[in-house]
Specification:
Elements (H helix, E strand, L loop, with lengths): L3 H30 L3 H27 L21 H26 L3 H31 L3 H12 L3
Helix pairs in contact: 1-2, 1-3, 2-5, 3-4
The chain binds MU-OXO-diiron (FEO).
């Protein structure tokens, strides 16, 4: 059994992962509207991944005999003022999520909750991957600048994400 404080913090993180899923789905819809199908597909896959992250928390909370508490998910942003902005925002969002995962791991250590700490290590590593992959895309946007050819190339490249 985990502490009530730890259970509440895990439920909060589950909500943040669901919000992440919602946010990336909003970004996918933005790109669909711009007919940038590759960017839309990348965001849509990211949205599904975030849902899977939320479900890892959901199952862990149940597994340790704590109570899952679903709370309201904030409405995500709807529109962006440039094609590259959703990815810049995604990078900031992933840095925020990294901090919240690290804070959770700190709490698990503080509480000597070794099982939860081990559970969280997957997310610690995953966040390194997530920040790195979005940073790579943000860097590519910088490299292509105003080039339309570059934009179509990047759209195709991101659309190939498995
Ligand atoms: Fe589940 Fe992108 O962090």
């Amino acid at each position: 059994m985990i502490s009530e404080k730890m259970a509440a913090a895990l439920n909060d993180q589950m909500n943040r992962e669901l919000y992440s899923s919602y946010l990336y789905l909003a970004m996918a819809a933005y790109y669909e509207e711009k007919s940038l199908k590759g960017f839309a597909a990348w965001m849509s896959k990211q949205s599904l991944e975030e849902y899977e992250h939320a479900m890892k928390f959901y199952h862990y909370i149940i597994h340790v005999d704590a109570r899952v508490k679903l709370t309201a998910i904030d409405e995500p942003q709807f529109d962006w003022d440039s094609i590259e902005k959703p990815f810049a925002d995604a990078l900031e969002h992933e840095k925020f999520i990294t901090k919240s995962i690290n804070d959770l791991a700190d709490l698990a250590v503080e509480e000597k909750d070794h099982a939860t700490n081990i559970f969280l290590q997957w997310f610690v590593n995953e966040q390194v991957e997530e920040v790195s992959s979005v940073q790579d895309i943000v860097d590519k946007f910088s490299l292509i600048g105003d080039s339309k050819n570059g934009l179509f190339w990047l759209d195709r490249e991101l659309g190939a994400r498995q």
